[in-house]
Design goal:
The complex is a heterotrimer of chains A (252), B (472) and C (385).
Chain A: E1 2-10, E2 16-25, E3 30-34, H1 41-48, E4 56-61, E5 64-65, H2 71-78, E6 81-84, H3 96-101, H4 110-114, H5 120-132, H6 148-161, E7 166-170, H7 178-195, E8 198-203, H8 206-212, E9 215-220, E10 223-228, H9 235-242
Parallel strand pairs in A: 3-8, 3-9, 6-7, 7-8
Antiparallel strand pairs in A: 1-2, 1-4, 4-5, 9-10
Chain B: H1 19-28, H2 32-36, H3 40-60, H4 66-84, H5 92-109, H6 115-119, H7 121-132, E1 137-152, E2 162-164, E3 170-173, E4 177-178, E5 183-189, E6 196-202, E7 208-210, E8 220-222, E9 229-234, E10 249-266, H8 268-301, H9 304-307, H10 311-329, H11 332-343, H12 347-371, H13 375-383, H14 388-422, H15 431-439, H16 443-471
Parallel strand pairs in B: 1-4
Antiparallel strand pairs in B: 1-10, 2-3, 3-5, 5-9, 6-7, 6-8, 6-10
Helix pairs in contact in B: 1-4, 3-4, 3-5, 4-5, 7-16, 8-12, 8-14, 8-16, 10-12, 11-12, 12-14, 13-14, 14-16, 15-16
Chain C: H1 12-35, H2 40-45, H3 47-58, E1 63-75, E2 94-97, E3 107-113, E4 120-126, E5 132-139, E6 146-151, E7 165-179, H4 181-214, H5 217-220, H6 224-241, H7 245-256, H8 260-284, H9 288-296, H10 301-332, H11 343-352, H12 356-384
Antiparallel strand pairs in C: 1-7, 2-3, 3-6, 4-5, 4-7
Helix pairs in contact in C: 3-12, 4-8, 4-10, 4-12, 6-8, 7-8, 8-10, 9-10, 10-12, 11-12
Classes of the chains: A alpha/beta (252), B alpha+beta (472), C alpha+beta (385).
């Protein structure tokens, strides 16, 4: 269970990215965060694993206060939280295999890992993860030789290597075309359903959010605008979240 | 003079669109009209172009060229006038006029005389011949040198007319003693058959000189099928007159024969080229390697994105960048001069010079790579719980290592070219041979050096291009 | 696992190849370290040898105090009666001999009045045949007065109406700083250097522009003649490109004599090869669409080149040309070392004379000019491409 209490983030330039946000995520949820660009979705997700340091507030994962963790504790906590990125964040010149194994860095012997040595189980685990996302045959290709959708599947495999309890996905499909978007989200849904991994995913399109989410949170200018079931978002709410001039775009 | 005119569409127009004022200004100071009409670049370009042209004409004292400047000046007045009336004129005519000035002055300064290319073609002929007939390989051959004794100033007991040679054959002289200038008939038998044979003369202390024809050419005879020949010569002057005491002196007629006995082999100069070429490549390799050790740490210091944190690091960044730029602009040949004084003549001086220049060149290229690092993967690896070292090894190094390696190979390639000329100032490598052979006019040997540089550098160029393609 | 072929590790051949490569590289390094006679301790032990050069490089000979002179000349017949004696004024700056004329081997006293105070004075004989003979030296006191003994030497008497004269020259350093002689020479030579690069690049462009087409696959077509021409052109480009301009200059200096022209020709030859190669690659990477369109509209190959290829290749061509000008400026700074003219020749002369601070002037001039042109050319190229 993840609890977020009065989370606020103010950047050095004075931008208030998150303004007193509080909510709780139950285990096994597929939580989708929606909102316009700059509404604070990325900041929220990055505060949870402290890639961005929150200004105030608390984040408690299974009773452990992440915001108070020491650097060593933070690394231990981070390996329980997988993350998927909008631009995949793969090392383009490394092989797919190496990128996926990087997901295991929080577990393995740090010194051996610097030499590129991983335990055999981890390699087996990497093959399984790659097979799960359907790109095992690309294991020894360079990451930049893959298409966008394939690269994001490598990103998912990397996150799977952490055997996470919580998976953060920061706009995982906004750099992909609609068809590929669905295939990537289906893999995330699979992980959520079959492995019981809690998912927190930010998305641009409401239609995608409705298809996959078990619960939706909407942010606007760093404030929580909505917290509820996908069906509860009607035209009125939509306008509140996206602004008066917005038109619904369906992505199928 | 010009009131701001708020109705003018161009806010930078400070002449209120008055064509005559603009033309007048440009007449006094070229480009000023254009400048004040808001065409700042055009104005400055006109001023700079006309100013530079006048300066170079005065310096080179070529007043006829003022015609072109006058043309450009008048065009500039007309242009200012037209601009004020919102018409744009093509800048090509004055550009050509000023280019005429620049190129005529340049032609003069650089002393270009194309007719020399033809007039002095005779000087180029041996060079061209050397290039086409490089002295790299030669036929394997054997050599024999035989002598028949002859006394200048007869003694009581002159040598016998026929000398039997140890390796077979005989040399028979018509006389075995006499004075300088006496005719002498030489007959030889049993030498190597059908071989061009050079006739030489050896003096009492063994110094050899060519026997020449009346035209001044080396006397060469060809032996017949049985290895015999006959030839008439004159007894040459082979001892300085001051040493000629009138006492009998034992000279000798000498016969030099060279015959080809087998296949091709690398000539002495060929071996020199090979060893020096290997040295050239070695200099480049060692210098590039040394440079990498210094350039890698420097590149991080010279990367803006890593150093923009606080004023101290920003200052370090600028100092490093400036130093790199200064050193980079000095050719390694000039640096080599310093090192030749410092550590003495030889390849080591060349290595150090190339190292210094390469540190600067590589430092700049590397730092540009560091500046273009993608922070996404760093974020991703940190989010898995990796520590600092793991992040560097898994997210930073894989991004910079391939381009670093590619640039290093590229630099090695350039350094091989550079080290071919380091020898010109005593820095080792094949350049040393080239200048030496230039002084001796040994163009066949230079030809060998020339071709080996061309082929080896072209091959390395190709290989390094392929390697780099695979890396990036 | 066996039915998943992609899981197999890379083939043993790949490992063998890597091992072989490693052995070759190690051997190359061992050979290289031996043959280059590395003696790193000397860098430290012999550092004192480099200190004077580096010091002089850091204090280049840029400015000099100008020397000002002022001279006073009077007639002084030797021997007496060989010409008109000087008329000495009573006031103002003047020099006064103790006797108005004298015979050789006598000694006279020369005094000066109301001259520049505290200044060195050099006395000279201006002989009737135009020669100048140094005599005594003196220094004026605070009142501008000096007094010195001068020995009259046997000198040529009056010739063609000229008689011998006595000159007193006052010499002092002017307060203003003037550009030194080295700076003036450096300026002239650096301009020559820049122009050498300009001329070489221009000549090379004129040749490379047409020749570049011969090395472009898409222009030469796939016919037998085109293929042969293409390969010959590319081979020549690649071979000629590998020769440093300095090596070329060794030959041109003999052909055309030492001087900038030899340097220009050497750089031209190398630049033609390099520029042609870059240019033919640029032609190969053009968009074939417009060419197709012209051919489709019934145009022939030449028309297609002029209307579809030229507009696409001119900007990169200019960019390459400017880039090579930049390179050639660097090269022309050193081409003088082998007789190619420019600042290199002057630099070498100064270095041979051990005039390192003058050499420093040249080096700094090179740094400044190369840096400026480097920035300028990259700015222009950024705009073009």
């Amino acid at each position: 269970m993840l609890e977020i209490k009065n989370l606020t983030k103010v950047y050095d330039d004075g931008t208030v990215a998150l303004d007193n946000v509080s909510f709780t995520v139950q285990d096994g949820e597929f939580l989708v965060i929606i909102g316009l660009s700059g509404s604070g979705k990325s900041t929220l997700l990055r505060c949870i694993n402290r890639l961005i340091e929150p200004t105030s507030g608390q984040i408690i994962l299974d009773g452990v206060d992440i915001t108070a963790a020491s650097p060593a504790e933070l690394r231990r906590i981070r390996r329980d939280i997988g993350m998927i990125f909008q631009h995949f964040n793969l090392v383009k010149r490394s092989t797919v295999m190496r990128n996926v194994l990087a997901g295991r860095l929080g577990y393995v012997n740090p010194w051996l890992s610097l030499l590129g040595i991983f335990p055999k189980e981890d390699k087996e685990r990497a093959w399984k993860a790659l097979e799960l996302v359907g790109i095992a045959e690309k294991a020894y290709n360079r990451a930049d030789a893959l298409s966008g959708g394939q690269q994001q599947r490598v990103g998912i495999a990397r996150a799977l290597m952490q055997e996470p309890k919580l998976l953060l996905a920061d706009e995982p499909v906004s750099a992909l075309d609609p068809a590929t978007s669905h295939s990537v989200l289906k893999y995330i849904e699979l992980i959520n359903r079959e492995r019981g991994v809690t998912v927190m995913c930010s998305l641009h399109f409401l239609s995608l959010a409705r298809t996959y989410a078990t619960r939706i949170i909407a942010l606007k200018d760093g404030k929580m605008m909505f917290d509820g079931l996908p069906e509860e978002i009607d035209d009125q709410r939509f306008k509140e979240i996206y602004g008066e001039e917005a038109v619904r775009v369906e992505v199928n | 003079m010009a009131q701001p005119n708020h109705n003018a569409p161009d806010s930078a127009d400070r002449l209120g669109g008055n064509p005559l004022a603009a033309a007048g200004l440009s007449l006094v100071v070229p480009g000023s009209g254009q400048y004040l009409l808001g065409q700042t670049t055009r104005g400055l370009a006109i001023l700079a172009g006309i100013g530079l042209s006048i300066g170079s004409i005065l310096w080179q004292n070529m007043p006829t060229l003022f015609v072109f400047v006058a043309f450009a000046w008048l065009w500039n007045v007309w242009d200012a006038y037209s601009l004020a009336r919102k018409a744009t004129r093509s800048y090509l005519p004055p550009l050509f006029a000023l280019l005429m000035v620049i190129y005529t002055v340049g032609w003069n300064i650089t002393q270009i005389e194309p007719q020399k290319l033809a007039q002095q073609a005779n000087r180029a002929a041996p060079i061209a011949h050397g290039m086409l007939a490089p002295d790299f390989v030669e036929r394997e051959s054997e050599f024999r040198k035989e002598r028949g004794p002859f006394e200048v100033h007869c003694s009581d007991n002159p040598p016998p007319p026929t000398t039997t040679l140890k390796s077979g054959g005989t040399i028979t002289l018509s006389a075995t003693c006499g004075e300088v200038g006496d005719p002498l008939h030489v007959r030889a038998e049993g030498l190597w058959p059908n071989v061009e044979t050079e006739i030489w003369w050896a003096n009492p202390i063994g110094q050899e000189q060519r026997v020449v024809t009346p035209e001044g050419q080396q006397l060469i005879v060809t032996t017949d099928d049985t290895g015999s020949f006959e030839v008439d010569i004159e007894v040459p002057l082979a001892v300085p007159l001051s040493h000629d005491t009138g006492e009998p002196q034992l000279h000798a007629v000498q016969i030099n024969q060279t015959r080809i006995i087998g296949g091709w082999k690398i000539s002495d100069n060929g071996w020199l080229v090979i060893t020096k070429m290997a040295e050239t490549i070695a200099i480049a390799l060692v210098a590039t390697t040394f440079a990498v050790f210094f350039a890698v740490p420097l590149s991080f210091v010279a990367a803006r994105n890593l150093m923009s944190g606080n004023p101290v690091t920003v200052a370090v960044y600028y100092v490093t960048r400036t130093l790199l730029n200064i050193v980079r602009s000095i050719e390694s040949l000039i640096i080599a001069i310093v090192f030749v004084v410092w550590v003495g003549l030889g390849p080591f001086a060349g290595v150090m010079a190339l190292t210094v220049h390469s540190i600067a060149a590589l430092g700049k290229l590397y730092s540009e790579q560091v500046e273009s690092i993608d922070f996404g993967p760093i974020e991703a690896v940190r989010s898995t719980g990796a520590n600092w070292w793991q992040t560097v090894v898994y997210a930073v190094l894989p991004q910079v290592f391939p381009p670093f390696l590619a640039f290093t190979i590229y630099r090695w390639d350039i350094n091989v070219r550079m080290s071919t000329i380091l020898g010109f100032v005593g820095g080792g490598g094949i350049g040393f041979l080239i200048v030496q052979w230039q002084r001796l006019s040994q163009w066949e040997a230079i030809g060998a050096a020339f071709w080996s540089i061309m082929i080896i550098v072209a091959v390395l160029d190709y290989v390094s291009a392929k390697a780099r393609e695979r890396l990036i | 696992m066996d039915n998943q072929p992609w899981k197999k590790s890379p083939s043993p051949w790949k490992y063998g190849r890597s091992a072989l490569l490693a052995v070759v590289i190690i051997a190359a390094y061992i050979y290289s370290f031996r043959v280059t006679e590395l003696d790193l301790p000397r860098l430290v032990t012999d550092f004192p040898k480099a200190v004077p050069i580096l010091q002089d490089f850091l204090t280049p000979d840029v400015l000099a105090r100008g020397e000002q002179t002022e001279s006073y000349v009077i007639n002084y017949p030797v021997p007496c009666g060989s010409g008109q004696e000087a008329e000495i004024p009573d006031s103002g700056p003047r020099i006064v001999p103790s006797v108005p004329c004298s015979d050789p081997k006598t000694t006279i006293t020369v005094e000066g009045f109301d001259l520049r105070p505290d200044t060195k004075v050099q006395l000279r004989w201006l002989l009737p045949d135009g020669r100048r003979l140094r005599s005594a030296r003196a220094t004026t006191d605070g009142n501008g007065h000096f007094n010195v003994e001068v020995e009259i030497r046997p000198i040529v008497a009056a010739k063609e109406g000229n008689i011998s004269q006595l000159e007193a020259e006052l010499q002092w350093e002017s307060t203003g700083l003037m550009p030194s002689e080295a700076l003036k020479i450096t300026f002239a030579k650096i301009v020559e250097t820049v122009f050498m690069a300009l001329m070489a690049t221009t000549f090379a462009c004129l040749v490379a522009f047409p020749v570049g087409f011969l090395g472009a696959r898409n222009i030469m077509g796939t016919g037998p003649v085109g293929t042969v021409v293409y390969y010959i052109a590319r081979t020549i480009f690649n071979l000629m490109r590998s020769i440093e301009a300095l090596v070329m200059a060794v030959m041109f200096a003999i052909w055309l004599g030492f001087g900038p022209f030899a340097g220009v020709m050497a750089m031209t030859v190398v630049t033609v090869a390099s520029l042609s190669k870059l240019f033919s690659e640029a032609i190969e990477s053009i968009d074939p669409g417009p060419m197709e369109a012209i051919v489709a509209a019934g145009g022939n190959r030449l028309q297609a080149i002029v209307y579809a290829v030229f507009p696409q290749v001119i900007p990169p061509f200019i960019a390459f040309a400017i880039y090579h000008w930049d390179i050639n400026v660097r090269i022309s700074t050193i081409i003088g070392f082998v007789g190619g003219g420019g600042i290199g020749l002057q630099l070498q002369t100064w270095i041979n004379q051990l005039a390192y601070n003058k050499a420093g002037t040249a080096v700094w001039a090179i740094v400044i000019v190369v840096t400026i042109l480097d920035n300028l050319s990259s700015q222009i190229r950024k705009r073009l491409v």
